[in-house]
Fold:
Amino acid sequence: MNQNTNIFNKMMSMDRRWVFLLLIIVCVAAYFAPFSIPILIEPEVERVYNFVDTLAPGSIVFLAIDYDPASLAELHPMTYVLLEQCFRRNIRVICTALHPNGPSMAENAFLEVVDSCKVDKTYHGKQFMGREVVNGIDYCFLGYKPYPALVILGMGTNFRLPFPADYYGRPIDSIPMMKGIQNYDQVACVVNISGTSGTEYWISYGQGRFGFPLALGVTGVMGAEYYPYLNSGQIFGYMAGMLGAAQYEKLAENDGKAVVAMKVQLFAHFLIIFFIIIGNIGFFMDKFSKKREGR
Amino acid sequence: MKKTTLIIMAGVTVLFLLSWIIKALALEGMQEDYIKKAFLVTFSAFLTLSILSFLYRDNPFYKFAEHLFVGVSAAFWMSMGFWSTIVGNLIPRLSQNLSVFFKVHYIPGDFNFRFYIPVILGLLLLMRLSRNYGWISRWSLAFIVGTTAGLNFIRYLRSDFIKQISATFVPLLVDWQGTGHFFSNLDLSASGQLVMMLANWTIFLGVMSGIIYFFFSKEHTGMFGRASRFGIWVLMITFGASFGYTVMGRISLLVGRITFLFRDWLGFNI
Structure:
């Protein structure tokens, strides 16, 4: 066995812990480095932003938060920026969480965005005065119920069927915002931010049955899976993973965690591609050496 | 227990207590329940590091965090199911006294005998715990499986079958979605005729070759074999796209944890 073969063997059998360690070092270094990267906007993300941005004040956006803390890093930025866009523009929000861990995610997002809306801010050259966003007037959080398919179908008849009371136990009819609101007919669009297969229920049982405009925000892992629904027109907009969240933040001129995370993504991807190339060189050279030695 | 293990455990305990105290001092005056908050942040950091420690090798800290996660998740899901469905939906429609007991709003006039059906089916499901009468739980299971199959049949047929097939019926050489007549708009913009046409051809060839790859009633030789070979390339590109998104997803999770550790726990102002 020659020296080259030894090097390639070593490349092939490198302890995976070195890869993890290097990846963590690169991610931490990139996280602290003071620079930003350009983010290109894709049409499917822009369509969600434009749809919400052109809604008349007082319209209702239905936000389905179906994720747990495991997907928080990717999906929370989407929820934050979308909620802030709605509240700044006086668009009302009805929210459900059809994942058992979803209510705490939704509540956390509402608390933080309500706080953020108290401060004056300027987006796209337009100043938005800080205001008190009130639970029951500006938004209604219905909470969690199991079996997403049945809940989605039930809400198509009346929100009160699966949710006689909101997450905080108040009867729906006693909530000012819900007066005269029966079902999806009064909702401008549904945005499902999801880290679960619940998204499929929203597409088929929700959009398929009731025909409302549906947009999705999903985790990176689910990213490639739902593009066909965009092509078929079953969803009108789509945000996939941290990139989708960063694009929405850029569109809203409300840079947050997703934009910061994209610079980490860049260097982490470079490192992973580097390791893939090294691994492939090692694999092919090792194969070539063995062939040359007649083994 | 080995001496080294004991020393490591003692060291981690000391570090945990130190971190709790320092965090509590940092939060003092900023939050009311700062001792509790400091404990929760420190404990979260400990669990994060315990899970990440598996990257080095399996260890008792990882096992503790893993078992805690599984146990808490199971208990939380059960609790959510009970309070949101049985207490939240069923009791307000069944009994005023029970509604008062559970402090939920009673819905007068909404009583209907059909609400007892899920109660009965739910109780039958619990018969699974009995060795002699466990078979009765199959009635409930049969109801669940039958209902789900019936609902899913329609759902898949409509949204994942008919609509998806319809979406692949795209014109290959003609005007599409108002982009102009053939050869009238051959610029390279995303909405231009040329790009649209290429996209349509990609969809057409990708779908056809993908189907051919999974068609096993004819030997994959000659033209059919070449189409099948192209089909596997299409599948590999699709899996590659999924893999790329998955990498992005995993890095995002790491970024989330880094943000938590450095900003929320260690207090770096980023």
About this structure: Chain A has ten helices and eight strands.
